[in-house]
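Worked example

This section walks through a single chain of length 458. The input is the sequence exactly as stored; nothing has been trimmed or padded.
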Amino acid sequence: MPRILIVEDEAIIRSALKRLLERHHYSVSEAASAEEARTLALSDFDLIISDLRLPGEPGTTLIELAAPAPVLIMTSYASMRSAVDALKQGAVDYVAKPFDHTELLETVERILHKQSMQQGTPPDVTDEGGGRQTMIGDCTAMQEVYTRIRKTAPADVTVLIQGESGTGKELVARAIHQQSKRAKAPLICVNCAAIPETLIESELFGHEKGAFTGASAARTGLVEAADGGTLFLDEIGELPLDAQARLLRVLQEGEIRKIGSVETRHVDVRLIAATHRDLRALSKSGEFRLDLYYRLNVMQIALPPLRDREDDVLKIADILLEKACKRHERPGLRLSRAARQDLRDYPWPGNVRELENALERGVILAEGHLIHPDDLGLGPVTNRPHPPAASSAAPTSDATAEEDDLSLEDYFQHFVLEHQDQMSETELAQKLGISRKNLWERRQRLGIPRKKTARRQS
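Given that input, the structure is written out below as tokens.
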């Protein structure tokens, strides 16, 4: 059970937050100040949630003291300056009070998930630039993928990866290679759909000087370049029949022959192929060699589409959003609750690649510190039923849930009544970190009338 420490001087918020987290199976401890928190073993906690403004030392002082435990900062006024400062000092994220229960729980879950991911449960992959990234996903289908990768990688057999475009087939191929006995040898990646049909054989198998018009020098093919390592052929269903016959010989005999050459060369290559097409159906129509299909289909790994991966889409979105914010130098940007719901409900025909593009748009178009649905530029979103956030949680009475909601809503009501005489609706919404529409909806729900202003005389 994850251990969380709440550092908050307002008892009503601290106790409400504790009850909320305990209902979702977190072990929660409390402290009313940074000084009181110092008396605890901070590094033993999985997460520390601290108010920014505390009596005595600010909450940011706990960031260094608690390392490597992450610190989530709460700020009453959603000040972008204070939030960005906290992030620069090493806070893992921030939330604006009064916060929505669902958004807070999602933030806590995301942070704890990221911490567990860093412990290496799913495979780590090194990309072409040398950067490290971890495969993301907790759903049953992805757990099966991780198991297949772990068992298949050291076996040195041919692997066929099947999945829709944009599901991360190359990422799986890299994970297999880097966990195999060939990890120190080269991994050569080829997108068969991106090479013109007239050049594909030359690219894969090489050619001798003068073999055809334009062949002014001999060229080593990509299959030979992968000798001793792994060759990844993406979209292998697009490979022409002549090239399929040459590839079959590589798999059967371990030999290649350059175009224009009479000599054969021995190569030791492990082949990983990927496709979004049904190769068996293509073989029946004569578009793909059946004998090659059987050679490829020694071990099969099926990648699920993003729409079937339950809540993984939100976890992937958080990681991609963080990267996009760094690229565009927009720290502190977050997804609104409505945007997160749209991400969850959208069918994602383009899978992870489409999700990455949508978040890129959101970062560029967002005004303020929240990304709204319009910024993402998604098509029509059809709501789909979702299981409760914690289906295994013990049932709680309506009275208990209502008590928690009211304790946090009291904070909202107190702030609005105290400041609405001096602030406009826009200013109130900005200080609270919510939209004007959300402010109006909360007024209606809590029965807080909007302050009437005298009309200006012309």
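What to look for: The CA atoms of residues 362 and 376 lie 5 Å apart.
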